[in-house]
Amino acid sequence: MEVSTSAPAPAAPLPVALADGVFPAGCPSRTVLDHITSKWGVLILLALSEGEQRWSELRRRAEGISEKMLAQTLKTLERDGLVSRKAQPVIPPRVDYSLTERGYELGSLLVPLVAWAFENAEEIVNGQP
């Protein structure tokens, strides 16, 4: 049996239309990518991919996030149409957050990426090939 020592094939190139559209500085996709791939954006989207959650649950799950950053991240993702905010008319106030249909679509793409990062993180951080 022969063992191949060649490098794996590179990922398929982006379609020309997509490649031309993603790289220019003014492309709207760069703004969206910045929102969804930010440190907290990914974590909040991932948490909400498991279902509706309250503010306090999200804050607890995204360990280390400040109230200000959680509020800012949720507002950005809501403005982008990825997160839905539902305020309940009760005392004390209750607000539930969930993913929109587009948010769930995005979540299904992020889960494999985050799973890959989790599986490879220790070796990467330790500088192992």
Briefly, what is this?
The protein is 55% helix and 11% strand. With 129 residues, the protein is mainly alpha-helical.
Please describe what this structure looks like:
This protein is mostly helical. Helix content is about 55%, strand content about 10%. It is built from six helices and three strands, in the order H-H-H-E-H-H-E-E-H. Strands 1-3-2 form a three-stranded antiparallel beta sheet. Helix 3 crosses helix 6. The longest helix is centred in the C-terminal third of the chain and has 25 residues. The protein is globular, with a radius of gyration of 19 Å. It starts with 15 loop residues before the first helix and ends with a helix. The model has no long low-confidence stretch (mean pLDDT about 85).
Q: What structural keywords apply?
A:
129 residues; mainly alpha; three-stranded antiparallel sheet
- Spatially, the strands of the biggest sheet line up as 1-3-2
Tell me the number of strands.
3
For the largest beta-sheet, the strand count, sense and barrel status come to: 3 strands, antiparallel
- Low-confidence parts, pLDDT < 50 over ≥5 residues? none
Order of helices and strands: HHHEHHEEH
Question: What class do helices, strands and sheet pairing give?
Answer: mainly alpha
Number of helices: 6
**Mean residue pLDDT:** 87
> What portion of residues is helical?
55-70%
Query: What Rg is obtained from the alpha carbons, in whole angstroms?
Result: 19 Å
Distance between the termini: 24 Å
Percent of sequence in beta strands: 5-15%
Estimate the global geometry from the Cα principal axes.
globular
